[in-house]
Amino acid sequence: MTVTASRTGRRTPSGDGAGSRAAIRSRLGRSRGELAPTGREVTRSGAELLVEALRQAGAAVIFGIPGGASLPIYDALYDAADLRHVLVRHEQVAAHAAVGYARASGRVGVCMATSGPGATNLVTGLTDAHMDSVPVVAITGQVPTAVIGRDAFQEADVIGITMPVTKHAYQVWDAADLPRAIAEAFYVAAAGRPGPVLVDVPRDVAQARVVPRPVEDVTARYRPHREGNAAQIAAAAEALQGAERPIIYAGGGVISAGASAELTRLVERTGIPVTVTLMGKGAIDEHHPRCLGMLGMHGTAYANYAINEADLILAVGVRFDDRVTGRLADFAPRARFIHIDIDPAEIGKNKPAHIPIVGDAKLVLAALVERITAPPQIEPWLRQIQEWRERYPLRYRQGDQVIKPQFVCETVARLTQERAIVVTDVGQHQMWAAQFYRCREPRTFISSGGLGAMGFGFPAAIGAQLACPQRTVVALVGDGGFQMTLQDLITAVEWRLPVKVVIINNGSLGMVRQWQQLFYRQRYSHVMLQNPDFARLAQVFGAAGRTVRRPEEVEDAVAWALQVSDVPVVLDVLVDPQENCFPMIPSGQSVKEMILE
User: Fold this and answer.
1) pTM listed for this prediction
2) Cα(308)–Cα(327) distance, rounded to whole angstroms?
3) Which residues in 576-588 are b (16+ Cβ under 10 Å) and which e?
């Protein structure tokens, strides 16, 4: 039998609520005794069935670390040469790498850990996947069923712990249920609004031998609504055609739905300007003349002014994050909202929608484009936006003594022709990268958006490089975040992954220092970092390393890093420690309080 649990509230895949373990067991109508082999059938272990189910689900790469409770699964993996298992050095890295793999490729990422501390170390990465709607399947070993709930060695209630941060969680108590659980996990993770799913496997279940049985249709109980309502789409088209100051506000849902082409067609059919979220970077070519770049706390001033003065906002694949809206009551106070999202729970959650449309962004945008018969008359609005663009551009001043971090981001963009996959960590460098690296295509900007998890960048870059071995992958990280997961340099060396790690090294937890400077009277409490020599450290691991101290060295160093093809590269770029990231809308405030420089 399979004990299932789903998070309460939104996103219940079964559509009939979580239910108690007893109720679910009763509904399944099976007991372990019914499945015992008679001696004549061919039996397989639970671990063997699990590995075969992974293969059937299309898994190609698994990031993980073995342990006592997961040993039967790893024993079965020993014979699975077609499944690449990447042995990382910390389970948090496994989860972040699975996220990077999924976001770069569009496929489901897979991570694996043993019970107890192995499973709990996955939680940060699963929470990140949950916040950013990334399809990940996590498989955890568990103590034997006979001692579950008895505080056994390395026991943790991983179902209870992860229920709030997963889309669904299974604890499998019957080996014969493992194929169905894995198949369902992959389907649920990717269907509708993507998210993480956990499958917990007690050791005796993995060891038990059973007669395999066919897997039922796993789509039967969870079929998200994908087609938008035709009348609401028609109303949206009419509203867009009649608007005087419309804006499109596009998020990560456009990318996960594969709707970039449809978004671009809508922009070009209507001429309406578009702004993107951090998660939505790449949803449209940011060099498109109608693209205003990123909005929000550190977005462009002209994008923020435009959305604040809009009379109609088409929000697609977004959740009205507080880093975008600031003080919610003052966000776009004169606008009506059209909100498109695959998850009905998002519609109206933070901002009421005048025209709500539940559905897949790709299908809805395609239908919306067909409904547009004439573009809106918005020439005065476009002139106003252009005036804001010219008056408030992104800017910095690069002298000849100290390296500005924005210059590093621009140099990476120029030398890669903005065709690399850029993965960031979290902090000032993340926002500078979002501002100065303009993406040309989807799935090329990967960052921890909702959770803001320091330590995310480098592991996610490992995952992205394994997913896309032919692409250039650049990890733009801070000196603080990189130290949280840098031990996995050895993993990248072992797999000969040429990830380019560019450290924006300002000797501090830079964003925290900026906040302390601006809002805590320059009381710099515990933010200054004593750093190792990152270049030498990289060399000790077997990677290539170089320190960059002066502005004239930056271009040559980045060009050198881009040419290394068989090992990871670490560029330690010593930047201006006093540089701050602007524009900035202080937390909980509005566009009116935006600090420009």
Assistant:
1) 0.94
2) 12
3) beebbbbbbbeee
